[in-house]
Amino acid sequence: MGLVFKNETFRDDFTFSNSPAAIKRFPFPFHEDRYMYTVNIEPHIAGPKGSVYEFPIDIDEHYLSDMRDRALVLKEDPLRCQSLPHMLTAEWDLVELLMTSMSESYPEHFTLTREGDNWHWINRPMGIDQKFTFGDVATLPYRPMEYITRQCQGDFCLLDQRDGDLWMDAGIVSTQADWSLDFDVGMSFKEWHAPVPMAHEVGVFDRALKFLLNMQQGKPVRRLNWTMTINPRLDTSPENYHKWGKDRTTVTPENVGNKVHLRVELQGLWRLPRSNAIVFSIRAYLIKMDELVTVPKWGRRLHRVLKTLPDAIADYKGTTRYRQTTIDWLAKYDDGAPTSKGCWPD
Amino acid sequence: MSGEAEFRVRVAETETVADGIRRLRLVPLGRAALPLFSGGAHTVLTMQDEDRVLRNPYSLMGSPFDSSSYQISVLRTRDSRGGSIFVHDKLKEGSELSITAPVNLFPIDRRARRHLLIAGGIGITPFMAMMEQLEREELPFELHYGMRSKAGGAYWSALRDTYGRRINTYFDDAQQKIPLTRLLENQPLGTHLYVCGPAAMIDWVLTEAREAGWPEENVHFERFSAPPAGAPFTIELAKAGRVIDVKPTQSILEAIEAAGLTVPFLCRGGACGQCETHVVSCSGTIEHNDHFLSAAEKASGGKIMICVSRLKSAGSRIVLDL
Ligand code: HEM
Ligand code: FES
């Protein structure tokens, strides 16, 4: 099957783009013509071959470029990766989950050999060959979570469960949609969700938390979240707002197709065995409007979703300054024809 | 999302480890390994007793790092439903059963500077797995373990051999009592307290801890109730359109399962909240036996935990949003 890894950037000259195959498998998040927050949690079971749901952890053509961008972020700002001391067991659980999943799903790229606690990890795309002792921090060049997430696409949070709540006590967050691990670390589920509008009032977070507290091993779940980003920038963090905030003022009718991106987060949740912690993965997929409208159903539908989106949600997602310009641009691709149910292209 | 992850297992070994306490070792059938788990986790055993299905939760007491087998210990009690009697009298080496994936409602709080474990009787079992994990993670702990007698207590001697002076034992028949007041007063800041044992013991420890000014988040307990027997009554499932009789020794959950329907559960002991069900209407009084709903929720009568709670008087009827 063989993935071909592209060489591209998510900053400065922004050379990121999607191949036709990547457009086809893009996890378009809208199953109908409008959007509202719901408890959109479903079992994280294998989806169609070639889709982003085929494997528990999706590795795609952007892998090496994603990992290069993460390394740059961490070099400038080590606080993007933090772990409270009591999370070490959960970090090892995460190493096991990711190495096992990556090597089983992509055997031509990753190999894991285990003999008791003696583990041997090979990451061919990144040229890594590492023998280490599972459970012994001294045998890896980084702490366990940082070690493996420098080699795996997506941000990760490790949630400690206690006192009937979840606590964001560790994470590596370098591709976030305007929230900060450094600010949220140590917070509880409702504390870190406090900025989200409308959802608290309708009980979304009460129900989601209750569900997560009783999540079982071996039964991972997933949900999609979305926002919009100007330029294909992965690191839209509050820490670097001065670098990207002004991009929002640069959108013109002429450049919407190239500059405005839909950003979809595929979020996976797993109960971890040794620590009883939960891992929350946030894998961001970007697609520019020019690419998105190559799927007619998506162009029509996104136009309608943006038009009817409640202002509070549109503001929260930071789209206020360029929302109307984007709607006007998308109008060309909406002939008013009905759209079929579900997210996939017709 | 509902429906539990279940595995088939075979009883590979049974042993009477103390008066009335039987240990079982369960090995996987049709799969290479069982999932690892965290100290404090339990599993629910499904046992087929002639035409009756019994499902009981038991703490996993073996090593959390052993995926080749799980171990549980069961105290023979005179419970009305006969789960423990079935385990003692009918399960043999070679018997096959189903178990659910492990769930932990009594996890270690790893922020603790020190872990103070208080066990009574069969309540030792979750601590066996916990201590194995605390030891491996190099976290400091001490155990205080009360039993009726040397013959009636399980594992105390082996635990002493493994963990030495960190294990403190107390035997009722020698008039020994856990020196709780002294223990609670003399702990370094950041100590967490864990208790598992008979209901009266848990109440005693929780009360003393509160009086000694322990912060609530430093106190952990595992309290499962077996569903109590009571009067027979009738349930009506509004969505499924079914009317089902609940027998005196059945829980609502068991009656629903016996009628061939499935409802999500995790603990079957009124602790986890998974089986919370909305009450549409009720002609009688609910006897709330769970540890999950708040006092206000119980008083309002709008919800019921169907794994342990029932109606008080014979012949009454409850309509559930199921
Ligand atoms: C336990 C794992 C989870 C973590 C670590 C997490 C983390 C976050 C964070 C950091 C934010 C950004 C808040 C901000 O603006 O500062 C957020 C937003 C949000 N979360 Fe979660 N979340 C989790 C689970 C869930 C679940 C299960 C739901 C299900 C309903 C949910 C629904 C939302 C929604 C609706 C938003 C607003 C997103 C937007 O409009 O862009 N989260 N979450
Ligand atoms: S199943 Fe846990 S409370 Fe009923």
Describe this structure in words.
The complex is a heterodimer of chains A (346) and B (322). Chain A has 13 helices and 10 strands. Chain A is α+β, with helices and mostly antiparallel strands. Chain A has one domain (20-331). The longest helix of chain A has 18 residues, at 88-105. Chain A is globular and about 60 Å long. The model of chain A has no long low-confidence stretch (mean pLDDT 96). Chain B contains 7 helices and 19 strands. Chain B is 18% helix and 33% strand. In chain B, strands 1, 2, 3, 4, 5, 6 and 7 form a 7-stranded antiparallel sheet that branches. In chain B, strands 10-9-8-11-12 form a 5-stranded parallel sheet, sandwiched between helices. Chain B is an alpha/beta fold and 322 residues long. Chain A binds chain B through residues 41-43, 84, 86-89, 135, 160-163, 210-211, 213-214, 216-219, 221, 273-276, and chain B through 1, 4-5, 35-38, 40-41, 64-65, 101-104, 107-111, 133, 136-137, 216-217, 266, 272-274. Bound molecules: protoporphyrin IX containing FE and FE2/S2 (inorganic) cluster. The site of protoporphyrin IX containing FE has 23 residues of chain A, from β6, β7, α7 and β8.
